[in-house]
Predict the 3D structure of the following.
Amino acid sequence: MLTIGEVARLAGTTVKAVRHYHAHGLLPEPGRDHAGYRRYGATALVRLLRIRRLRELGLSVPRIRELLGDGPATVRAALDELDRELAQRQREIEEQRGRIAELRSSTMDLDLPEPVAEVFDRLELDGLPADLLELEKSAVLLLHALAPEHAGAVAGFCRQVWQEHRELSQRIADRLQALADAPADDPGIEPLVEDLAALVQTGEWDAVTGQATEQHGPALMADYLSGFSPAQRRALTLLAERLPAPAPLPG
């Protein structure tokens, strides 16, 4: 009779694998000798050889457990099924690699959802200040995290505001940027807020705010605002107060 190390060696596997097969019900626990050690016979060795072979063919542990004891035809059917799965996975991998090749050759910011990345690529080319661009990206990523299924709506909003009103957007961005070193009571804040509110509402604001998440949105946006200077933070806080409230969440 064989020890666990001997049966593992003869089957071309490891002691760890044998114990794994015991734990998952592929290989029954053998009897033990007077010293309490497992002892394996020919039946256990043959079963272990079958398990190792099926694992080499790529079958999963649950599938092997189903197949053990069945005839060769069932194993062939399982291999046919596995081959179809692998073929599908290969097609998916090829599609993914093709998409990766496209992204690697593009100039888009890969941190952003694709529809939004295209808009921000244009903004960068148009010369939007790098620090403001980075804060805008952060806001978009927060919105995407709160409602990833609406990345298209956010992209559409950005496109409407920044591209369809490019010169106005740039002037307002410059004014907001100028507040970086201004005091929180700067007299230019109020007129800037009015102009910002008018600009934002040229886009489909409801499409963005309607996806707000009451549970996490306010706290996250408050933390986001901490990245701005006091004057900029006051302007954006006043802006949020003057814009239409988010649509209530369903239910």
